[in-house]
Amino acid sequence: MSVERQAQIEPLVQESLVHNTRVLINVQSLTASIFGVGAGILGLESYAGFLFYAGFSLITTALFFFLRVMSASLNLRRAGKSVNVFETSIYFRSPFEFWTGGLVNGLAGYILTWTLFFGLVRA
């Protein structure tokens, strides 16, 4: 079956893509603040703090992928649809947005809570 025909049979609904992106951004923003608390309490400074944020943000995205995206793809495959289990473009606009969008979206909250708790612990 051609790609155009498949898109006509099962179109991507824009509202669903926006909802999925919004849920992912909410999860990443919340966890970024929690990671900021952790980095502040641990007393991380400079590059160590930013590497802490980048590493845990990617871990959070990977967990979200395995628990939500991959499980939904497996359910579609069990239902008889031909779906690539590792494909994120079914649920999100692009793989780049899925994997790296949280790094930018949660950075301000991370820095805010990081510096707040760093100052509280060191005071």
UniProtKB/TrEMBL annotation:
The lineage of its organism: Eukaryota, Fungi, Dikarya, Ascomycota, Pezizomycotina. The chain crosses the membrane at residues 23-44, 50-69, 98-121. It is a multi-pass membrane protein. Keywords: Endoplasmic reticulum, Membrane, Transmembrane, Transmembrane helix. It is found in: Endoplasmic reticulum membrane. Belongs to the EMC6 family. It comes from the Eukaryota. InterPro entries: Emc6 (IPR008504), EMC6-like (IPR029008). This is ER membrane protein complex subunit 6. Coiled coil: none annotated.
